[in-house]
């Protein structure tokens, strides 16, 4: 008799985005004409072609794979040295953050890494997440057995939820109580809010006092337009002693279908053994990666490296500018519709308050049914997301303009 992981049975419905996909498919099957004019602003998936620098690097790498002398088999599990060096220099040291090349671990996605990181943490940790929250942080903790059951709103026992609301600018504040592991996402998915320096300083102070670890998801860092906002948790003194940072090439280089990301684990970051001693987490993550992962493909790592070339950087900036331009169009459209909006300035997501008395899923159904636009219901990100919805700016400009035209036509 084989036993299954009972924790999976605690998970509420399906993962949010497949669930939305299922509902949209059912709508399209039943309404083929509406399906013709459907515009997807749901999942944050990029729409624009890859930067030419990445394409050229991949072509070259493919040709290398065709020659006996240049062919590559297994690479280092934690990433090729030349990519780790380019990342550490460009994303950190050039911005004043002391991160060494070998503190970078290249992977196939920030989503995978934020889930997999639980492998190196014990089961007794008190875990804090924001509410609303990127569902991966919650669901992977449920799978690992770190929670109790969920209530009807999808809130799990044993997790500490930190509310993100208009009064705190949708940035969670350190709790009064003790927690051991904290997930922070800035710029935030789903609310599009970005934490400022004092807010991150408060978190680092809390983490150092509580000997807690911050899991800092900076996948949307490239969308920060405000020069005063930190791009990395390591811009805050003390963060090397209390934080792991996750980054991705998905939303800046458009790699959602290519797959490349990285995680920073400083060698000065420690956590407690069950005997009360403090030991570094870096060797554990290295061990985890070398045991369970065989590295990102050579071709993809060459493409990621090309994003750091002068032309690659300019092309990435152009992509970000395109999506942020969409965000402005969509914000204006939602405002014209009389809706309250936030986000979309330092992030590709616009967080919209549904009209009074309208739930997130009711807003989803109305916008899908009448405007034929797919959005993401805020309640799918947590109970405090109820009454909100998220519009993704990942689209063509023509589609963003069309959505901005259709939203004000809705009669609520
Ligand atoms: C989202 O829409 O929230 C993101 O696309 C999800 C992800 O990046 O995994």
Secondary structure elements and pairings:
Layout: H1 16-30, H2 32-36, E1 39-40, H3 52-65, H4 81-92, E2 104-107, H5 110-116, E3 127-131, H6 135-143, E4 159-163, E5 181-185, H7 197-210, E6 213-217, E7 243-248, E8 261-264, E9 270-272, E10 278-280, H8 282-292, H9 298-306, H10 310-336, E11 340-343, E12 349-353, H11 360-371, E13 373-374, E14 376-377, E15 388-392, H12 397-406
Parallel strand pairs: 1-13, 3-4, 3-5, 5-6, 6-7
Antiparallel strand pairs: 2-8, 7-8, 9-10, 11-12, 12-15, 14-15
Helix pairs in contact: 3-9, 4-9, 5-6, 10-12
The structure holds D-malate (MLT).
What does this structure look like?
The chain has helices at residues 16-30, 32-36, 52-65, 81-92, 110-116, 135-143, 197-210, 282-292, 298-306, 310-336, 360-371, 397-406; strands at residues 39-40, 104-107, 127-131, 159-163, 181-185, 213-217, 243-248, 261-264, 270-272, 278-280, 340-343, 349-353, 373-374, 376-377, 388-392. With 412 residues, it is of the alpha/beta class. The strands form 4 sheets. A 7-stranded mixed β-sheet has the order 2-8-7-6-5-3-4, with helices on both faces. Strand 11 and strand 12 form a beta hairpin. The structure holds D-malate.
